[in-house]
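Inverse folding, one chain.
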């Protein structure tokens, strides 16, 4: 039993911290889910509008972003979908341990859905959550 638990812990740790490069994968053009509104992410900025670009640093261990805009500062929690084509952001501070415990339960559920051929949304619980996708919602989908 101890070996099984150790193997699961090692597998989860490798998946969470070494499987992908969050700092690289977060960059590019994203779309606010359900819209054609873009959010452009560079190595150090998140552009929401022509005149609104947040500076950020990423903490891949805690899965958080430290954000700043002018003299304002904040933090956001992030999570990628298993295929890394959807990204959820939740405004507010979080701890490393809280982030880890949320991701353990989400990962188990997401892997279960993946076995069934479904993609789990990375959406985070909380009031201030934004979901971004790599593809825009097309006009035909919006009319339906």
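Residues assigned per position:
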């Amino acid at each position: 039993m101890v070996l099984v638990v150790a193997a699961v812990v090692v597998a989860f740790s490798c998946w969470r911290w070494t499987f992908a490069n969050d700092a690289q994968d977060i960059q590019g053009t994203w779309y606010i889910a359900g819209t054609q509104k873009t959010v452009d992410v560079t190595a150090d900025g998140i552009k929401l509008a022509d005149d609104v670009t947040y500076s950020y640093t990423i903490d891949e261990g805690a899965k958080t972003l430290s954000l700043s805009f002018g003299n304002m500062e904040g933090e956001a929690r992030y999570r990628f979908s298993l295929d890394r084509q959807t990204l959820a952001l939740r405004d507010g501070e979080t701890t490393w341990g809280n982030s880890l415990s949320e991701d353990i339960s989400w990962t188990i559920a997401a892997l279960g859905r993946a076995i069934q051929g479904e993609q789990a949304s990375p959406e985070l619980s909380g009031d201030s959550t934004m979901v971004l996708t790599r593809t825009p919602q097309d006009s035909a989908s919006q009319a339906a």
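The mean pLDDT is 86. The radius of gyration is 16 Å.
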